[in-house]
Protein 1
Amino acid sequence: MEYGLIKCYTNYENGDRWLRKYTGIRPLITCVLGFTATGLIPHISAAGATSSDRQYTALADAEFLWHGAEHICSYPLPPLTAGVSPVVIGRAIIENLNLPLQIFNAGLNQPPNVPCIDLGGTSANSVETGKAMSIEVVRHLFQQGLIWGKKLSQDANNYIVIGECVVGGTTTALAVLTGLGIDATGKINSSHVQCNHAQKAELVKLGLKNFQSPNPLDLIAAIGDPMQPVVAGMAIAASQNGGVLLAGGTQMLAVYALIRAIAEFEYLDWQPNNIAIGTTRWVTEDPTGDTIGLAQAITPEPILLGTKLSFTKSKYAQLRIYEQGFVKEGVAAGGCAIAASLYQNWGQNQILTAIEQVLHKMGMQPTP
């Protein structure tokens, strides 16, 4: 089902209801930052050309998302294998539509140089250790998510877009999905043109080797990342008051599966029909993954939305490269594009023009 520049891929009836309810509504954009040492493993991610670059990706994205292209950032956007960070998409929309933004630090190696709420978490060890975080930290972050989800959703007319920036997060997402008994093999996405399924699967196998607990919070402590318990808690609490758009692909599908598992284990109320997952068509139509099949493997089936935004006719090679499978998503890019279409009925031309203006401010030159 298609709604202008937005396409609904699963759970059509509830997706239609969700989109109609939040058409014309100005959302609050949030972004939850986290770090896992998984992101430093060679070749695990393309969100930074080298392991050294990837140490600072979340810090750089946070600064750019908050300040924009004309600010001299402490952490410049890291060089990528190809293309430009997806943060330019979210920044273009936030800047042009004057959308409110709140950034959360769930667990970074060092605090970001932007106004943000520090949730008192820690960064995570690599997934293959099976000891990513302490259970005390995970429980604390989940409780913080519940608290902030309730606070942010007090205005029932609003909905919340919850994005993330966790380099290596599709690997921790695969670990969570696998640990919850969901067959995600060969279905997840990545920032690589060809998803590195085998590498991710081997790390997950090592991480889950000795895991036995039925508690999903224990699962996050073993093989997850600090963003996951925060966003799960936020969405559970916020869904009781209004709408939630989980802005991301594989990582937010994993969070959605966690929401159900945690709510069942902890006997918490939540409203699944108030939660949608919003990403880009570069994710939903990625031939090296199966996002739609993965969504359909989760119960209850989530509402999966995607922006049909295209960079095919962009003046900038850094954007056109997205059409070859590079980058795809991140830092709430797809969710912000969906929000722009819902709030101001922005179509292809408005969104692309806004993004290209950001690249122009960055000093990039159009390329034929």
Protein 2
Amino acid sequence: MNVSILILGGGCFGLTSALELRARGWSVTLIDQGRLPHPDAASTDISKVVRMDYAADEQHTAMGEHSLIRWREWNAKWGEELYHEDGFLVMSRDELHPGGFEHDSHAFLQSRGHTLRRTSSAMLPNLHPAWNQDVYRDGYLNPTGGWVESGRVIARLAAEARMAGVEIIEEAAAPRPLFDGDRCTGIVCSDGTRWNADHVLVTAGAWTPTLLPHLQNVMWPTAQTVFHFKPDHPEAFTAPKFPVWGADIGRTGWYGFPANADGLVKVANHGPGRRVNANDQRTLPVGEEERYRAFLRETFPSLADAAVAATRVCLYCDTFDGSFWIDHDPDHSGLIVAAGDSGHAFKFTPVMGRIIADVVERKPNPWAERYCWREKIAANSDGARASN
């Protein structure tokens, strides 16, 4: 095969599809506006959740199960533990009830043969003492899950791609798709540099609707805040006492991680966020630190006064229905789009390359059908994303 493809964007979508397509014999060039891992990309940061808990969503549960197997395989191949299987603890303020994320995840995973530990408020002082037992009544621990050092994974994948023969061009000057009429023929930079190929795959995350304005009615950048706290005694916030967690996450969006090797505890909110332009300066909303500390005072009182080591504004590329967007553009031949992370892509990194490559090659893939080009059917993705 001597077919060429340009990939615009070096996050988890871009690098995994580059590796997969290169393994299939494609000539692959990946272009990014920054250095990898790009500090502003959603794929970066110190950690991302890895879980298979998706309420009664059969496909994403299955994708999570398969990804977990591959994460362990990557640990073995790389000879270092970048995926940490510390478990995933979800607690609810109320008793678990049908229709709630926690209840439906617990029931569905049990039906698939997974062993979970139901966790009540009475169990928290002994098992998870940082939690406020007066507020959180019911939940469960899934021991199969945890977190991954996301920025380091991107660096690993970029190194593997180079070794496999993928040409990676970093710090390109404002690269964008190049069109000849309705056909996408390559990528061009603001300094006039251009590349041509048989196909162009846009994996640019939150920058996708800026690069492809005809998609702005079905996807948009959304800003979500992240705080890294540095407690005086980080050992109190390490697994198994303090695994990856969700605090009434189906309703509130609050989630976080155990302390990493640097003693940092990452806390974030998977909420509606703020619609932004991906190129705008990233700033925290007024009062955001106090919002976080109010949550911590109620949920993890011993963490509430910890120093802030860093903050981050992470940009999702939200689709209207919260599902990924992976397909050939029906109106622009030669153009394929893989976007719409909607805040839940990184955990699936080990399986995304094959899905995207199958779409590029127009091969059937049952998981890809859900992410095809589609008509907008909802006003926004806030509700849809809560369970995605």
Protein 3
Amino acid sequence: MLASVKDILWEAKNNGYAVGAFNASNMEVAQAIIRAAAKKKCPAIIQVTEKTLSYAGDSVIVEVIKAVIEKESGSLPIGFHLDHGRSLEVVARAIELGITSVMIDASRSDLQDNIAITKRVVDFAHPKKVAVQAEIGNVPRLGEIDQNPNWDKIMTDPLEAKWLVEETGVDALAIGIGNAHDFFRERPEPDWERLDSIHKLLPDIPLILHGASDWVNHKVVEAVKRGVVCFNVDTDLRIAFNTTLCQFTHDKCDILDPRKILAEARDAVQKVVEKKIDLFRNLK
């Protein structure tokens, strides 16, 4: 069932585990995510980006995902979230389409502008009972900055994070502690002391880590101990989906029914999501 992302995050926070927020760009990936969550009997968050909304035609992909949630999840709580909304206009469009949780990413702006933009989104979204996630600090991606950044300058400043939350009233906060999007080279070891400081200053805010596709067991365990309740996963799903498509293209190009190929790709993504759910939930 379609459920509150805020409730899902707090359930994880109160019970000492993390949930996965998985990006979907088409029906098959959405099905894979929901089927994996249903198989594991664990709540999950499915999310779309601004690019996905534009590519698929806004209401089309939103209605597809909502239909998949309704059909596949039963009574299992599944959240629906906008990932990396860059402006109030994009966020407003997502809310109008029926997405019940949104991220406003003004992290590339200076602190004052980030606070101002985020506050506008919160003031718009909260009366509509839509949760808001903000981001502070830089979670880099390829092509944006040099592969060897000064991490101390781009990671989340704990005091600035506290200020942003207090000034805006956001429901969740995405932070940077050396994590990175896609194939950008991460900090050799996450800045655990920084995460401890953020959590100490903001004990009542669910903390989110983006760029978590390649995070392994010990990093996940340490992050959850220090207040992280949600890991965003996109790259690993793309790799599983695209690898399967490429295998068919090279080895089985005589198949004329695209559904056979897409079904195999869907199964590959589901296996990845199942492993991620186990990793985030069964912490030792």
